[in-house]
Amino acid sequence: MKNPPLSGIEISTEKEDLICYSFDASNAEATMPQAVAWPRNAEEVVKIIKYASENAFSVVPRGAGTGMAGASVPAGTNCIVLSFEKMRKILDIDTKNMTVTVEPGIVNGKLQKELEYLGYFYPPDPASLSVCTIGGNVATNAGGPRAVKYGVTRDYVMGIEAALPDGSMIHTGGRTYKKAVGYDLKNLLIGSEGTLALSTRIRLKMLPLPEDIMTLLVLFKNIEASGTAVSKIISSKIIPRTMEFMDRLAIEAIENYKPTGLPTDVEAILLVELDGYPATIKKEAERIVDICNTLGGEAIVAEDDMARERLWEARRSISPALYHIKPSKINEDIVVPRDKIPTILMDLRRLSEESGISIISFGHAGDGNIHVNVMVDKNNKEEYAKGMEIVKRIFEITLKLGGSISGEHGIGITKAPYIGMEIKEKELGLMKGIKGIFDPKGIMNPGKIFG
Q1: The total number of structural domains that make up the chain
Q2: What is the DSSP letter of 444?
Q3: How many CB atoms lie within 10 A of CB 61?
Q4: pTM
């Protein structure tokens, strides 16, 4: 690692650094890298990639390590982890064209705060927004609660500057909102989990801040009714800013971990948020209350910003709360058509009762994306094996309902064994062919997506 071509670049081979960068939020089993590098600009990224290519190393790109599928951990020998955490600048805010250009290491929440200060808005908001990076969001096409109305990361990326495995640079997309010239390489890179190229500069769309926000907490005594409410609200031509779901076990986990006053005597909660003009969202809120009331739901309006923030603090604390129940839960992020939400919720409840293993569900019900947590201890081999059987069954049910095995976490390592359940042989062959064209030596994040 002290080869002259890498002089001046911050690199570590210290054991403590290698350990820290050998895992992410997925807790997926991985190998230790040979080194960790922290480039500060695109030129240093290129140098690292060229060195890796010429010296039989692979490159594992990393944002903040918040991924839930193991996409940013080493999956083979002779890996260099390339961390983008030192490339965190906002390079340009173009208010005339409503765009912002950033380096990949900038934290999502920081970007949001900077834009909000100026009266603008970047919608994609993963639960880990206070930590996760825009580069990581692009690599996994991250979503979040606001995706139901505003879409996911892909819908806001206008252009990407990226380094290829041979060290050359490409510029995809552009400054214009419309572009119909050639193949869309930009969208090919989004969600590719760093297996094709490494983003070094990203141009994003931004929107004006909504004029007002209203937040509703809707309580249900029946879990199926909560799923039906989601479908009925959307079919009534109301598109909320967010529509989050939590089942009873998720609520109990939150209240045991960080009490916020959520009621624990209900089967499910919907956290519904509307934004726009005050008069419009007031009418929409009234219609939502009426719909939920007919299904046995009880709606409570957040009185002020503090009450609203308490609700969102509760929602964002679910994942850490669940680790206090089991240290190695299996977390999946299935997605189904919205009208199938009541069915999948009942199927999950049935699976839990039949297996005797707790399944805790929460997530972005507004777009059908449910985070399913199979509560097993990895150290209990029999229990963990049973949990993995349940995961496969969940995927089978999801696909039968017309859904997908991943809504926003990606494939990484953890879901690679299941990709063939959803993507058929011909399509997989085309994808692998694209990978081979971009990365003939196979040095870019090996072992991810295709295993």
Answers
A1: 4
A2: B
A3: 26
A4: 0.95
